[in-house]
Specification:
By secondary structure, this protein is α/β, with parallel strands linked by helices. It is built from 14 helices and 14 strands.
């Protein structure tokens, strides 16, 4: 759990973060959003003391972070950024092992952890161990950056626009991987992004900032359905119906134990993408399958918007 209590960061007379208070509960995925200069990256970096607050308190599971030595704190928190920051002259395995080596983990434990993380990030250990960062694509480098951030099994993960420089296809793939990792590990994640679609796809809570102030802290559904003011309404955009569809999966709306012709979709696909497939195929229903398994039901176009947020 991360509690921000009246956090302020000033540079001279300018307040980059201005009296911000909210709490990210354990296991939540919190997206920090806002226009450029709204203070979202500054707020993130105050969690692991890369930047110190001018006022207020940040508590990590009840303990003030200012009372935790910076190096100790940073070894408890995974950190991934857009530029990745892999050491170019180290192999992929050694890059991932950076923090476990500092913590003096036994060699066998480090090797097991490297293999585990490469599998988790859908990278082939046999092909990756001895390669160097320049031999990887941008998407592969970003996956290794996430693996390194997770290497010492940190309590939480901080991510500062990690996918911002990637092409749309690679970015979408990594978003899906991160969502899967969050589901499987239950880690608390704080994620800076400027992309509302990315935040809606990944986050369980969104903190929207403007000029250093917290404007709304809410679930994605509430942010879309009940914006706090005109700024929030403008920021999330006008296509609220389609964005609400992105918050639900086929599993949420399927009619169980029914069947339909055609290629099945995954139960994990969001309703917005399912609607696109219906339009593309010229149908009003799609069979839905468990991951790599049998058909479990049918998704009907007529059911897409039931139970709106």
């Amino acid at each position: 759990m991360i509690a921000f209590e009246h956090i302020t960061r000033a540079y001279g007379p300018a307040r980059v973060v201005d009296d911000v208070t909210f709490t990210v509960e354990a296991g939540e995925f919190c997206a920090l959003m806002g226009p450029s200069g709204s203070g979202k990256s500054t707020l993130l970096r105050m969690i692991n003391r890369l930047i110190e607050p001018s006022g207020g308190t940040i508590r990590l599971d009840g303990e003030e972070v200012r009372h935790i030595p910076p190096q100790t704190l940073r070894r408890r928190i995974g950190y991934a950024i857009q530029s990745v920051g892999l050491f170019p002259h180290w192999t992929i395995a050694r890059n991932i092992a950076t923090v476990p080596r500092l913590l003096r983990w036994p060699r066998e434990r480090i090797e097991r952890r490297i293999d585990e993380l490469l599998h988790l990030l859908d990278l082939d250990p046999a092909a990756m161990w001895e390669r160097y960062p320049h031999q990887l694509s941008g998407g592969q480098q970003q996956r290794v950056g996430v693996a390194r951030a997770l290497a010492a099994d940190p309590e939480m993960l901080l991510m500062d626009e990690p996918f911002g420089a990637l092409d749309p296809v690679t970015r979408s793939s990594l978003q899906a991987e991160l969502a899967r990792i969050h589901r499987s590990t239950g880690k608390t994640i704080v994620f800076v992004t400027h992309d509302i679609e990315e935040a809606l796809r990944l986050a369980t809570r969104i903190a929207l900032l403007r000029k250093g102030k917290l404007v709304q802290f809410d679930t994605p559904g509430r942010l879309l359905a009940a914006p706090a003011d005109d700024f929030v309404q403008s920021f999330v955009g006008s296509d609220i119906g389609l964005r609400l569809l992105s918050l639900y999966t086929a599993e949420d709306r399927l009619r169980a134990r029914e069947t339909a012709p055609g290629e099945p979709i995954s139960k994990e696909i969001n309703l917005r993408d399912a609607l696109s497939l219906m339009i593309e195929r010229g149908v009003d229903r799609l069979p839905v399958a468990d991951r790599g398994g049998p058909i479990i039901g049918v998704l009907y176009a007529a059911d897409l918007m039931q139970g709106r947020a």
